[in-house]
Amino acid sequence: MNTYVTGATIKELREKKKLTQAELAEIIGVSSKTVSKWETAKGLPDITLLQPLAQALGLSVIELMNGEHITNRNVSANLLRGKFYVCPLCGNIIHSTGHAVVSCCGITLPPLEAEEADGDHGICIERVEDEHFLTLRHPMTKDHFISFVAFVACDRVQLVKLYPEGGAETRMQLRGMGQLYWYCNRHGLFRRRP
Ligand SMILES: [Fe+2]
How far is the CA of 194 from the centre of ligand 1 (A)? Predict the structure, then answer.
């Protein structure tokens, strides 16, 4: 999280909740002057007040920090609609099954948009016994490499981490309907339905 709750957010949420500054102040045990100061950017609520403030405004602390009410539309999470996030600083790979606010190394990460593979990022899939052997014709140098290959089916995610100076190849069991993804540190996320 790289922002703290702002006065504008408190004001907006308080008005939505149809509370006066005095009413909100009373619920959380501060003076109305204090609430007024927060809303006019002359002070910030102490961290110990975030929970009671969020509760009074009818949302979670995370939502309060984000300044919006997040509706969980992901009750029956579908892995096929999941998203990948990669941190450009440390290379951390995160997969979520639905909408998420993901941050790493102090950066809020956007969900990656997968593209159909171009000529420089093609993948070759060969069946070997009950597995598939995947080979990418791509450099594996320190500056330019394939960082991972993942197969996402409706009920499971397989992810293989690849490393520079290793081979751009792996074995996987591509069972069922799913989507194959691979990520180049320079050119981004690619996909293909095997
Ligand atoms: Fe590349």
Answer: 20
**pLDDT above 80: residue 131:** yes
Does this model's pTM top 0.70? no
Beta-bridge partner residues of 188: 184
Of residues 59 and 53, the one with the higher pLDDT is 53
Ion ligand 1 residue ranges (Cβ < 5 Å)? 184, 186-187
